[in-house]
Design a protein that fits this description.
Helix content: 10-25%
Number of helices: 7
Radius of gyration: 28 Å
CATH class of the largest domain: Alpha Beta
CATH superfamily of the largest domain: Alpha/Beta hydrolase fold, catalytic domain
Largest sheet: 12 strands, mixed
Strand content: 35-45%
Shape: globular
Structural class: mainly beta
CATH architecture of the largest domain: 3-Layer(aba) Sandwich
Length: about 575
């Protein structure tokens, strides 16, 4: 157990991203709130904190962990760590089984994937029933959680003989079942091999607080009890003893020793999405090459195993650690690499990729749900800066804006601009390679539904919608629309809902495409995209099985729908060329 020197936190203006998210665990959709500081960087700690009975993540974050001067967002932003507030099922936690322990494990894996948190510095805590859950989790998570905190939640378990020494901070008011706290802590104090108790009264200059410490434990761990005189069953938010700060200043001193191997999936990037519009049953997705690197701090890597969910798909015993997945079905896939070293220890890494075959339509603007961020799948350019999603922390330039007026046409919209005014120098595009999403369209008739207005153009500025080939950027269809609503450069302004516009177009050749929106050819032109829905109205029937289509040789020659060679076709119809369906007019 490694200990870090203690220092007091200084607080600055909060600049953290806060949002809600979800994850499926054991077949159940579970939700949580998350705080991620801007400019987080890699290798930063993670704190998971669980609410009390009948509460939820929002209450824990916004009421129990906030006063007039300090919030958990401020603590996170100053110390640069990720904080997750999970939601229990029916606002409660399971205190004996593994359901919620598995939820916590899944959160850890997702945070490691999304935010590259330091697996040595993961911390778990909770209030009331959430604190009881924390104690229940110690014996099950001690090998992956470095320190534990309970606020007003007594221990419901005793230590397992196999559990490593664990640092514990318990915070309790004397008006809240105070007599049961010490007996519950004693088994943990003994298990950790801690020495005699020391007490600091008037803790942090607060006459109502005492800090009890049992130090000198194995691996340098301590058990601490923060006593709050006459406090009841609630989180302490006194200026001298703010619970969020106390939790962090305790946890941050601890890190797991690391001897297990580390593994990293280098491609594809997590969150990669493959979207294929095609007749039902005919969606074809590209092969995915999964590549990983692995190393061991005190030995050698014996093997790296790859999994799609729980199914093992390959084992590599030497570099390069790579496998190619073919014929993958439409679904969200969790791809995992597990490295095993010569000591039998393992390390794992996982990513999520989504293969989607929309039935009828796809609402691209669904991802416009976080202000000052650029959603996954999107790339923007304003003639000066190119941005790719997912990315966040923007306070100017192309990004999603959140609108708060009492009357508003939509809650979020994607803002784009053209600084220098040159043609097509301000745009947003969905489906470029650097945006992390591929959009495949089969031949057919499509409609793009959209709602667009201007942001700061009282004289209004035209917006050009374009359907482009992903390779080469050739336009296959376009439409120009001039908005009649200007929001007025202030997100709290009232504005009515723009009229939904329809952009119909034909796709003649099966392939990868990009949806693009260009602001006007004038300096500081702009637009706000508030709705964007891609609809397939009809597909061109091919009469050929998609498996046969894959097998057609990519030789540039034309074939009819039975696969027979055709000289340069002169009649309109659907043909096959280079393994793709082509509508020839």
């Amino acid at each position: 157990m490694k200990r870090f020197s203690f220092f007091l936190l200084l607080f600055v203006v909060v600049a953290s991203a806060v949002w809600a998210d979800n994850i499926t665990v054991d077949g159940i959709n579970r939700s949580y709130n998350i705080i991620v500081p801007n400019n987080l960087g890699e290798g930063r700690p993670l704190l998971i904190f669980c609410h009390g009975y009948s509460q939820d993540a929002g209450w824990m974050q916004n009421n129990e962990f906030k006063n007039d001067n300090v919030s958990m967002e401020a603590v996170c932003d100053t110390a640069k760590f990720v904080c997750v507030f999970p939601n229990g099922i029916n606002n409660a936690w399971e205190l004996s089984g593994n359901r919620d322990v598995n939820f916590i494990k899944a959160i850890i894996e997702k945070m490691a994937t999304q935010h590259k948190i330091d697996r040595n510095r993961i911390y778990l805590g909770g209030f009331s029933m959430g604190g009881m859950l924390t104690y229940n989790a110690i014996n099950k998570l001690a090998d992956i959680v470095a320190a534990f905190v309970s606020c007003s939640g007594p221990s419901v378990v005793t230590p397992s003989a196999s559990t490593r020494p664990v640092p514990i901070l318990h915070i309790q008011g004397t008006a809240d079942n105070w007599g049961g706290v010490q007996p519950a802590l004693n088994p943990w104090i003994q298990h950790n091999g801690c020495g005699a108790e020391t007490v600091v009264s008037n803790y942090n200059g607060f006459s109502g607080a005492k800090m009890h410490t049992w130090g000198g434990g194995k691996d340098g761990v301590e058990v601490k009890l923060l006593e709050l005189k006459d406090k009841g069953h609630w989180i302490c938010k006194e200026p001298q003893v703010y619970t969020g700060k106390e939790i962090w200043n305790f946890c941050r001193r601890y890190s797991l020793k690391k001897t297990a191997p580390s593994v990293k999936i280098t491609s594809p990037a997590t969150g990669k999405k493959y979207i294929c519009f095609a007749p039902r049953g005919e969606a074809v997705f590209p092969d995915i090459t999964l590549t990983a690197t692995a190393n061991d701090p005190n030995g050698t890597i014996e093997k790296v195993e790859f999994y799609d969910g729980v199914k093992k798909i390959a084992t590599c015993t030497e570099k390069p650690y790579t496998v190619t997945l073919s014929g993958i079905s439409a679904a969200k896939h969790t791809l995992k690499a597990v490295a095993t070293d010569n000591d039998g220890e393992t390390g794992s890494a996982s990513i999520e990729v989504t293969l989607q075959a929309p039935i009828g339509s796809l609402t691209l603007s669904t991802d416009f749900k976080e202000g000052n961020a650029l959603p996954a799948g999107w790339t923007t350019y304003d003639s000066s800066e190119r941005r790719t999603g997912y990315s966040s922390g923007y306070t100017s330039g192309c990004r999603v804006l959140q609108f708060t007026g009492s009357q508003r046409g939509f809650n979020y919209g994607l803002y784009i601009r053209n600084i220098n005014g040159n043609a097509k120098q301000g745009w947003a595009k969905y489906g470029l390679s650097d945006g992390g999403t591929t959009l495949s369209l089969a031949p057919g008739h499509y409609t793009l539904k959209y709602k667009i207005c201007n942001w700061n153009m009282s004289n209004f500025g035209a917006v050009e919608l374009n359907i482009e080939k992903r390779t080469g950027g050739t336009s296959v269809a376009k439409q120009t629309y001039t908005p009649n609503i200007n929001i007025g450069n202030v997100a709290s302004n009232n504005f009515s809902s723009p009229t939904q516009q329809l952009f119909e177009f034909d796709i003649e050749e099966d392939g990868y495409y990009v949806i693009a929106a260009y602001s006007a050819n004038s300096s500081w032109s702009d637009c706000i995209i508030g709705q964007l829905v891609l609809v397939n109205d009809s597909y061109v029937s091919t009469g050929i099985d998609v498996r046969t289509l894959r097998e057609v040789q990519a030789d540039g020659r034309w074939r009819d729908l039975t696969g027979r060679l055709v000289d340069s076709p002169t009649q309109p119809g659907v043909y096959i060329r280079n393994g793709k369906k082509v509508l020839k007019k």
